[in-house]
Amidohydrolase-related domain-containing protein
Amino acid sequence: MPPSRILDSHIHLWPATACAATNHGWMTPSHQLAKRHGIEDYVKVTGPRPEGGFVYVETDRYLASLEPELKDGQGEEEEWRRKIAEWAKEPLEEVKFLRRIVEGKGEEGDGFADADVDGDEDGDGGLMKACVVWAPFHLGPALFSTYLSIAEEVAGPRLWRRVVGLRYLLQGKAAGEVKALDGVEPLEAVGEMMERVRMWEAKSQLPGNPVKFIINHLAKPPLSPTNPQPDERWRQALTALSTDKDVYMKLSGAFNEFGTPTPSDVPALLTSLAPFLKHISICFPKRVMFGSDWPVCNVGGPRGEEGNWGLWVEVVEAWMNLQAFSEEEREDVWWRAGCSGYGVKF
């Protein structure tokens, strides 16, 4: 049975004006993603679909240096704000782009339809149900808070209401910036970080709900069609997180975890993925959410730009059929877990 709605919990967007290495350090001129990826482009590949929308996830915009030329406790506030805004120029340009989306005021190359004066308040922006924006978690508390204040000001109230999460991407950072860049060790480190947050929450006894953590891309296990067995450390790391009911997992990013070539048909993909998906469904009941990782899914995806989004939908559907999921369990994956994790309301 087709889902009643889909919340795609993980997509990326950028305008035509942000397709150079000075906008995204990873976006070399020959990179296949070095072109506009707007909402119009996303809608073309998703085709006719159930009611729903997507969660935007930040795109790791360029920074000229790891930190601004400031230290906590030094300088006047106005000088701080100016230097931090200069240092974080590209992340703030990303916020401006998102603001144009929600306010329906596109510029040339943005790739979305503006708000419709005949009654469509949001235009294409209505599809963007929530945003996870960049945040400099590696900075000290004062610099971090100052950046968030600047970002909120740049965003404006309408966009800021849709900001539901913060992210600082560790993958691909230079040596010394993080202790480990890929594999199981970072997952274990994330688990330790989550434990420290929970200890701080218990000690501080501040009002409000616990921080929710959403793990992307199946926690990035190496995938192989010839050896479809999860690494024991990967299994144990996720099992250790499973008792925390505020930790969620995304069904996303799998195409890019295969070596070349990625299996191109649903049965082969399902054979490779089933042991991993079974473990995450056991660890995170009602907390596993669909995400496409568009357009990054096109890097490792085997069906080209027009077919990779749909292929991932087919794989997720086939897996739920294999597990004989009930209608309620399917709806959890397609949209309900994403709404719960991100606080989204349709």
The first helix runs from residue 39 to 46. The chain is about 40% helix and 10% strand.
